[in-house]
Amino acid sequence: MTNAETILIIDDEVQIRRLLEITLSANGYKISEASTGKDGLIHAATTHPVLIILDLGLPDADGIEILKKLREWYLKPIIILSVRNSEEDIIHALDNGANDYLTKPFRTGELLARIRVAIRQSQGTSDDPILTFGSLTIDLASHTVRKKNEILKLTSTEFSLLALLAKNEGRVLTHQFILKEIWGMGYLEQTQYLRVFMAQLRKKVEDDPAKPTLLNTESGIGYRFGG
Q1: What topology is assigned to 130-225 in CATH?
Q2: In this predicted model, what pLDDT tens digit does every residue of 156-201 receive, in sequence order?
């Protein structure tokens, strides 16, 4: 990075904030910190962060409620960093607008990789075409998806996953290929992680998520877009 980008950390644990401050500063990021949900919302509005790291166990509010309030206006990536590690918690956070989810204790290298991916996906490109599949339209330039002319609310990770599949219409993409393309080489074994994202994407894109016609599963292999 030539110009330092600000990352906002919303976490009540002083040790976690200190660790993140040292790690992120060493990698060229500016840091903004908040120990409560209320202060986090204020910092998000005043420091204009390129990404937010949000804990779910805050002293004044549940992190999901803060996530919902942020998503009323904040469009850039939000990564959840929490001790909660159940699939239900992960799905709940993703369904309410989180781009990614990492559990504590965490590896700093993995967090940095996910931050880079999230920021890269949010930047997008300006010269990609528009893909149309029946009532579904995917604008790769503006990162918007419309279904029956209504904009769908997708996270940047969900959009990247949908775009990857759609650009390879009819081709079976293996779990490992998708994981490598979207998250990087360090995630080749995280098939359950991919399954969580696919389930959320189907809820938003398919007419009947239980009987998908666009996001099809190739059992034991991967996924295929369309017929």
Answers
A1: Arc Repressor Mutant, subunit A (1.10.10)
A2: 889 999 999 998 888 888 898 999 899 888 888 888 889 999 999 9
Sign of CA dihedral 157, 159, 165, 168: negative
Confidence of residue 141 (pLDDT cuts 50, 70, 90): confident
**Contact between 44 and 50 (Cβ < 8 Å):** no
Of 3, 7, 2, the C-alpha closest to 118 is: 7
Domain with CATH 1.10.10.10 in the chain: 130-225
User: Taking the domain 6-123, which CATH number applies?
Assistant: 3.40.50.2300
DSSP 127: S
**Could you give the 3-state DSSP secondary structure of residue 69?**
helix
Percent helix / strand / coil, the chain, rounded to 5: 40, 20, 35
Mean pLDDT of the chain: 90
Model's pTM, two decimal places? 0.66
| Predicted pLDDT at 190 | 86
* 42-59 pLDDT per residue, tens: 999 999 999 999 999 999
> Which of 46, 50, 108, 39 lies closest to 76 in space, CA to CA?
50
Distance CA(48)–CA(5), nearest Å, equals 9
DSSP three-state, residue 175: helix
- Judge whether residue 31 has pLDDT over 90: yes
Number of Cβ atoms within 10 Å of the Cβ of 82: 20
Which H helix or E strand runs over 103?
Answer: strand 100-103
